[in-house]
UniProtKB/TrEMBL annotation:
Protein name (database record): 2-oxoglutarate-dependent dioxygenase DAO
Keywords assigned: Dioxygenase, Iron, Metal-binding, Oxidoreductase
GO terms of molecular function: dioxygenase activity; metal ion binding
The keyword Iron appears for this protein: yes
Metal-binding recorded as keyword: yes
Amino acid sequence: MATDARQPLQLPRIDFSGVDTSAPGAGRWAAVRAQVVDALATLGCFDAHYPALTPDLRAAFFDGAVKELFALPADAKRRNTYGPDKPLFGYLGGMPGLSNGYESLAISERVEPESVRAFADLMWPNADDNAGFCEAVHGAARRMAELEEAVQRMVMEGLGVGRCHGEMRESMRHVFRMSQYRPPSDHTEGSKEVRYGTHQDCSTITVVCQHGDVDGLEVQAGDGQWVRYKPSSPASLVVMAGNELRAWTNDRVRAPFHRVAVGGDVARYSAILFALPGLRIQAPDELVDDEHPPRFKPHCNDDFMRFCIARGARHEDKLKDFCGA
Ligand SMILES: O=C(O)CCC(=O)C(=O)O
Ligand SMILES: [Fe+2]
């Protein structure tokens, strides 16, 4: 009888305990950096054990803030918009091309206390005090952004272009998304429905925080096999490279295709932090040579995002189609 000799894959796990994101270079930094560069170059994704986002912070965020947010009526949630030009910066739900069971809100541009407060005031204009909501959301978003910045710095240092970190950082905007995936209507054991179709992100780096053990995220490895993410610990986050890191590194990192497929009978919640560079994306000279000719033409992330929106979530290499050299 033929057997599948391949082991079910898991995301590589990288332990960030002992890495102080505010003290680059200290402690276990260099050892973790080597693992980060290796994981992003091979699979494009890893499971980060990141105790700075504590169980208390996660509970306050998901069980308090996020569930309260999704309980709002649809017309309140639809106020979360950054204009028709930036659909990926605000509310997504009930639109053609999106699964009915998917809904998502976002705090965009800067994830700072003021923008979280402005978002809360928009959702609950008559509330006396949104302080608990703001503290929980900012607490989670800030820690995810700290991890994202450390990973960006590690990639640049690891590729020998650490000098570029500051300029890239200055230009960085964030989209902090809170998403809900409703369970399938068919509760048959093992049945799953895709709630977010196969795509690559148009960020440099994406950090995903899943609530509890309601799984759903699947990442495609180079051999085509789908790897279903199971958090390695309650302190686990997913870090994934997006197409803009692939462009900026002249194809040294892999931006994996991924999707969200849910089963069971409870809703899945996740928070997703996307880092979007504001500067022109062009690989530094050090990453272009005879062995690595330029793979992508210089471009702006805004233009690439518009291209991706027009195409929709599809299993195709949009970066190559948009600006392949
Ligand atoms: O919710 C997740 O686990 C990932 C969602 C995702 O891939 C996205 O919003 O781009
Ligand atoms: Fe994604």
